[in-house]
Structures are given as structure tokens and as C-alpha cells.
Design brief:
The complex is a heterodimer of chains A (397) and B (286).
Chain A: H1 2-27, E1 30-38, H2 45-64, E2 68-70, E3 73-83, H3 88-101, E4 106-108, H4 113-126, E5 129-132, E6 149-151, H5 159-169, E7 175-181, H6 186-199, E8 203-210, H7 218-225, E9 231-234, H8 239-251, E10 258-260, H9 266-278, E11 282-285, H10 295-307, H11 315-332, H12 337-347, E12 351-353, E13 356-361, H13 363-366, E14 371-373, E15 376-382, E16 385-392
Parallel strand pairs in A: 1-3, 1-4, 4-5, 5-6, 7-8, 7-9, 9-10, 10-11
Antiparallel strand pairs in A: 2-3, 11-15, 12-13, 13-14, 15-16
Helix pairs in contact in A: 2-10, 2-11, 3-4, 8-9, 11-12
Chain B: H1 2-33, H2 40-55, H3 62-85, H4 92-113, E1 128-131, E2 134-137, H5 138-160, H6 162-172, H7 174-179, H8 184-209, H9 216-231, H10 238-256, H11 259-262, H12 265-276
Antiparallel strand pairs in B: 1-2
Helix pairs in contact in B: 1-5, 1-6, 1-8, 1-9, 1-10, 2-3, 2-4, 2-8, 2-9, 3-8, 5-6, 5-8, 6-8, 9-10, 9-12
Classes of the chains: A alpha/beta (397), B mainly alpha (286).
């Protein structure tokens, strides 16, 4: 009798356990694999390594809030990182691995024309949607022939805001020198900036590319200064290049203002070239310590960064890129890259980023709507610190 | 025009003397130990960051930091010679593999510690000399002077001292020198320490006028190899000419020529020399 009762109790317990476990199993989310190709080593790692870290933080944040829901099914994000090694061949190898071995349908990453071109040569034929972190707006990397390739930032998006800032704060500036990286895209950048400059009453007196293997920027900067520009404009560079050129500019006695039209972290440039040399330098980007940043930046992003023990501003790039991609997938209610691309191009709205709502633009510049631009904040180096100026709209025309 | 030329001359001297400082260490190690120390570019980069640590976070100031860097990196050179190079001195292939392994170890170490960030030190001497439209920064002049003075001291050391003569003797005939009672192990250790100390100092000087980054190791290695090929393998004196040629090309090329031409100019010169005079401008017949 006692044995029977015990069996009954055990049986009841097993049934209760099974009933309790069943809904939990049903609720368990599926996994959505997303590839992240960034240069974790090599000369581009300065910005791309933290970008990758940022994407990982965003994945953790999205998953902590339940992942994304597509057609009633919950998906947790599994981010698979691959090192593109700062080279096109590294990028090609990394993307191939993600597409063929991991079978991903969505990839984030890529920052320059050669990297983007290498990645798209694999993702486009494979039907994989890639959201790159950046485009230099060259026809080799972006345009109608790349329908599945999108860009989170472009080197054109801050041009109007920064040239306007220059004109507003330095009314005597009439002539500008443009400094481009030696990737062959200088002429393209000048072409994009010239109409904006003209509209603002600025004349481009110099437009030059610095050699890729530059050790000392002095000869390049000296050549630019021969044209007697009132201001110096960096169109595309890492803090290393901007800081090096600022050092050379100030060493040669140039006292005029200097700005970047691409997203440059003023705090980083300050670290490279020091407070005295960097004084007055401005760029449209963001800052880790500014109270002017948006609530999601200050609350969620910084908390996750702190938890991970990291504090690099470029993490915001990776966070934004993954966040926007997952929003697009969720809003398109599809895991089909072609349908997500169609959504982004035709119906995308209310795409949130750490800096506010982003817009999809680029029809005039790229020939296709593929540039997703988030607002940017202008910071200027003052007394060794980045000082907030204003939030500005970023757009790739 | 004259003022402009002065500006170019200062830059050429500054850059050339840095190239020569680093290449001289590489050439000395090769001449005496018969080892192609491909890690020399990485040692130069590490030297720059070591100097930064002394100078900025520890606040030792420029002169003490540069001196401390030479001591630390020189000490590291002693370690390299004893542990990594001496066992393979008579085996060129194994020594080369060891040097390549060192490049990877040092760069990975820098990646893990410094990370991908750039650093730079304040000028050794702030300010500049204004000559009309041109400003000559005291910093560049100082760097050129320090590097040139050290190079002259090194050449005098090699030419005028018994140790220097012993170095030359080993470079010419290691077995003969050994038979004459020269302690090749001790001289090799000294040469490795000196070469590394010079590279470390060059890294520190570069951090003051330019910017430090892990990738400067690769850039400098390419420059070192170019200087050595122009000079001729084994020619220590030729390093001066090779370094000067590279400094001129890297200073005047970007100034007078478009980017697409100036960038590969130095490498074109290297290829030309390899084709026309494979032993280099000052190298001796094998």
C-alpha cells in the first residue's frame, strides 16, 4: 500500500515536471546566426576591433531583451566574428568562411572600398545581405550593382554639417585644403564635397591623397600649405592619420582651423596629438563621456560596455550596425535577405540607433538608397577635452 | 625658395637619421652574427611604446625616458642574443625562422598590451623657428641632431675603439677573429644590445615628432630592407647613403609627385638596384 502511494506520488511529480518543462521548451528561442567581419588585426584594427566588440555588446543586449521576433518565432542572435585582417584577401577569406561554413544569411562589417568590394564579391552572388560599417561612396563598393549591400555610415554624411560648422565658426575661412587617404578615392571625395563647399562660399584650393605607407606626413602637409588654405579638412582617416597630420601642420606653423568630415572621435585625436596641437579641431561623431549623448547610449550602451570592461568609442559603430540590421529583419518580418533589403530600401522608418533615428539615403551619391545615416554630434577639442557643440543631421545625398 | 629648401633639408635629415639609426642596428647584427633580424622593426616599435610609458604615464620627461628606453631595449637585445640567436648563429635558416617568430611574438605582445591605439609624446623641445612663411620646429631639428650625433658616435666607436675593431674583424672573418682571441660571443651580445638600443631610441624619437602605432613595425622593416639593399649587405658605411636616399625619397616624393607615383618610388629604386647592381651601392662582391 505504502509502495503504491509512493509510486503514485513519484508519477505525479514526473507529470508535474513534464508539464512545467513543456512550455519552457516551447518558448526557447531559435538561433539566428549573423556574421561580423572586422579587422581584428592589422592597421585597421584601431577602429574595427572595438567595432566588433560593440557588435558583441549589442548582441548581448538584444538577447537580454528577448532577441527578435519574426513571424511569431523568437530568435536569439548568435554573432560569429571573423578577422578580415585589414586586407582584401583577409576579408574575402573571412566572408567565404561565414557564408560557406557557417551558412549565415546576414553579415555586418567592412569599412573601406577594397574591403567592401572584396566582401560584396562573395555576399552578393551568395544572396547574403551585408550591412557595412562605412562606405567611401565609391562606385567600386556601392551602387545599383550591389542590391544586397548597405552601409551604416558614409564619408559624405558629415560633410555638409562640418563645412557649415567651419563657415559659421570661422567666417574668415574662404579656402580649404582636402586631405584624403591614399586609396585612390580622393577625386571621388572631392567631387562629393565641392558642391557643398561652393554653396557655402568655400573654395577648394588643394585636394590630395597621402601615400598609404606614409611615415612622416610633413611633405604632404607642406605641399597642401603651399596653396595657402585657410582651413584643413580631413575627409577620411583614423585618429592616427589625423593626429599625425595635425602634428605636422602645427610644426609647420599652420594656425588655421582643422575639421574632419568623416566620423572621427575627437577624444582619440586628442590622445594621439596632444591637447595643444589638437586645440580647435572638430568632427561630427560622438563621445563616450558626454552628458549630451542620447539616453540609450548613456543607459544601455555604457552599462554593457562597463560590464564588458571596455571603453572605446568605436564600439558604438558595431552596436549601431547590428542593432539596425536586427530591427530591419524584425520590421521586414523575414529572414530572407532579399526581403529585408527591399524593406530597407522602400519602407524603412524609425530605425533606432545610439544617436537617434536613422534615415536611409544615398540615391544621388551612390545611385541607390543604401546609406543608413544616424544623427551625429559635433565635438571640438578645447583645453584638452572634447566639448559638445550640437547635434546635426547626417545624410548621404 | 632658399627657405623652402632649408625646410626640406631638416625633414630629410630627421627622417634619414631615424632610418639610419634603425638600419645600422640591423646591419651590425647581420654583419657580425650573420642573422637577418626581421624583428628589428618590431623592436623599434616596442622601443617607441616603452619610451612613451616612461615619458607620459610615468612622467620621466624626454631625456631620461630616451635614456631609460635605450637601457631597457638594449637589455632586451642581450636577452635576444643569448636566448634566441646564439644557439642558431651558425644556422642561417633556423636563425631566420627564429627572427620571423620573434616578429610575430613581439607584434602579438604589442597587440595584447598596447592594442590598436596610437600614442605620441609631446615635443622634446616645443616651438619653432619662423622663417617667413616657413616654420622649422625645434623638435625636428632636435631629433635630427640627437640621431646624427649618435650615429657619428657609433661610427667613431666602431672605427676608433678596440671593441669596434673587434666588431669589424668578426664581420670580415669570424673564424679568423676567434683565432686571434676575440671573444665573439661577447662582441655579438654587445652588438645585439647596441642595435636594439639604437632601434629603441629611434622609436622614442619618432613618438615625439610623429605618432606611434603597432603597424609602424612593418613600415620600418620595409624601410630597413630598402636601406640595406641600397647600401649593400654587409656595408655599414653604405647604410648612411641608403638611409639618406630613402629619407630624400620619402620627403621629396610626396611633395613633388602625385601619391600614385611617390608611394612606390622607394621600392622602385630598390628593384632598380637589385637589377643593375645586386650587391648594392657599397656592397662587396660575394
Amino acid at each position: 500500500m505504502m509502495q503504491k502511494t509512493m509510486r503514485g506520488i513519484i508519477g505525479l511529480l514526473i507529470m508535474m515536471l513534464a508539464l512545467a518543462v513543456q512550455p519552457a521548451l516551447a518558448r526557447e528561442a531559435k538561433i539566428l546566426k549573423i556574421g561580423a567581419v572586422d579587422s581584428l588585426t592589422g592597421w585597421m584594427a584601431a577602429g574595427e576591433q572595438p567595432t566588433n566588440d560593440g557588435a558583441k555588446l549589442a548582441a548581448a543586449w538584444i538577447n537580454d531583451y528577448g532577441g527578435i521576433k519574426v513571424k511569431g518565432v523568437n530568435y536569439k542572435i548568435e554573432l560569429i566574428s571573423e578577422d578580415s585582417k585589414s586586407t582584401p584577401q583577409g576579408m574575402a577569406a573571412a566572408v567565404t568562411k561565414l557564408v560557406e561554413k557557417e551558412g549565415v544569411k546576414f553579415i555586418i562589417g567592412g569599412v573601406n572600398p577594397v574591403q567592401n568590394t572584396a566582401a560584396s564579391s562573395i555576399t552578393e552572388p551568395a544572396g547574403v545581405l551585408r550591412l557595412s560599417n562605412y562606405t567611401c561612396a565609391t562606385p567600386e563598393e556601392s551602387g545599383p550593382k550591389f542590391p544586397l549591400t548597405f552601409f551604416m555610415n558614409s564619408n559624405v554624411q558629415g560633410a555638409r554639417a562640418m563645412l557649415t560648422y567651419l563657415k559659421k565658426n570661422y567666417p574668415n575661412v574662404k579656402t580649404i585644403a582636402l586631405s584624403h587617404p591614399g586609396d585612390g578615392g580622393g577625386e571621388n571625395r572631392r567631387k562629393h564635397l565641392e558642391p557643398i563647399a561652393k554653396e557655402l562660399g568655400l573654395t577648394i584650393v588643394f585636394s590630395g591623397e597621402w601615400p598609404g605607407e606614409t611615415v612622416d606626413f610633413t611633405p604632404f602637409v607642406r605641399k597642401a600649405l603651399q596653396t595657402k588654405p585657410d582651413a584643413f579638412v580631413f575627409t577620411d582617416a583614423w585618429a592616427y592619420h589625423v593626429g599625425s597630420q595635425l602634428k605636422a601642420l602645427r610644426a609647420l606653423g599652420f594656425k588655421g582651423p582643422a575639421v574632419s568630415t568623416d566620423s572621427e572621435i575627437v577624444a582619440e585625436v586628442l590622445e594621439v596629438s596632444g591637447p595643444k596641437i589638437t586645440e580647435g579641431y572638430a568632427a561630427a561623431s560622438w563621445d563616450m563621456n558626454s552628458p549630451e549623448m542620447k539616453p540609450v547610449f548613456k543607459k544601455d550602451f555604457l552599462a554593457y560596455a562597463k560590464k564588458a570592461g571596455k571603453n572605446n568609442a568605436w564600439m558604438a559603430w558595431g552596436w549601431n550596425t547590428l542593432w539596425v540590421l536586427t530591427q530591419a529583419i524584425e520590421k521586414a518580418q523575414s529572414l530572407d535577405p532579399a526581403l529585408v533589403a527591399e524593406y530597407l530600401r522602400k519602407d524603412a522608418k524609425d530605425l533606432q540607433t545610439l544617436f537617434g533615428t536613422a534615415i536611409v539615403s544615398g540615391q544621388k551619391t551612390l545611385g541607390i538608397k543604401a546609406a543608413i545615416c544616424a544623427p551625429q554630434a559635433i565635438f571640438v577639442a578645447k583645453d584638452g577635452k572634447p566639448v559638445f557643440v550640437e547635434w546635426v543631421k547626417a545624410e548621404t545625398p | 625658395m632658399a627657405i623652402e629648401i632649408i625646410g626640406h633639408v631638416v625633414n630629410v635629415l630627421m627622417l634619414s637619421s631615424i632610418y639610419i639609426l634603425v638600419a645600422l642596428g640591423f646591419a651590425l647584427v647581420f654583419s657580425i652574427m650573420r642573422i637577418m633580424n626581421f624583428a628589428h622593426g618590431a623592436i623599434y616599435m616596442i622601443g617607441g611604446f616603452v619610451c612613451y610609458s616612461f615619458w607620459v604615464p610615468m612622467g620621466l620627461g624626454p631625456w631620461l625616458s630616451l635614456l631609460a628606453t635605450m637601457v631597457v631595449i638594449g637589455g632586451f637585445g642581450l636577452f635576444l642574443e643569448r636566448v634566441c640567436f646564439r644557439p642558431f648563429r651558425k644556422d642561417f635558416e633556423k636563425a631566420t625562422i627564429m627572427a620571423i617568430a620573434l616578429v610575430i611574438i613581439l607584434k602579438t605582445g604589442a597587440d595584447l598590451t598596447v592594442g590598436p591605439h596610437s600614442k605620441s609624446m609631446p615635443p622634446i623641445i616645443a616651438g619653432g623657428l619662423s622663417l617667413g612663411d616657413l616654420t622649422l620646429s625645434f623638435d625636428r631639428i632636435t631629433v635630427a641632431l640627437i640621431a646624427s650625433a649618435l650615429l657619428i658616435a657609433m661610427m667613431l666607436f666602431i672605427k676608433k675603439t678596440r671593441v669596434g675593431q673587434a666588431m669589424l674583424a668578426i664581420a670580415q672573418d669570424p673564424d679568423g677573429a676567434s683565432l686571434m682571441g676575440i671573444n665573439t660571443d661577447r662582441i655579438s651580445a654587445l652588438v645585439c644590445a647596441l642595435g636594439c638600443a639604437l632601434a629603441g631610441l629611434a622609436g622614442g624619437l619618432v613618438g615625439s615628432v610623429l605618432v606611434l602605432h603597432v603597424c609602424i613595425a612593418d613600415t620600418m622593416l620595409v624601410k630597413i630592407i630598402a636601406v640595406i639593399i641600397i647600401a649593400g649587405i654587409g656595408s655599414i658605411g653604405g647604410i648612411w647613403a641608403g638611409g639618406l636616399a630613402m629619407g630624400i625619397l620619402d620627403t621629396l616624393g610626396p611633395y613633388f609627385l602625385p601619391n600614385v607615383v611617390s608611394d612606390p618610388l622607394s621600392l622602385a629604386l630598390v628593384v632598380m638596384i637589385l637589377v643593375i647592381r645586386p650587391r648594392g651601392l657599397f656592397g662587396q662582391e660575394a
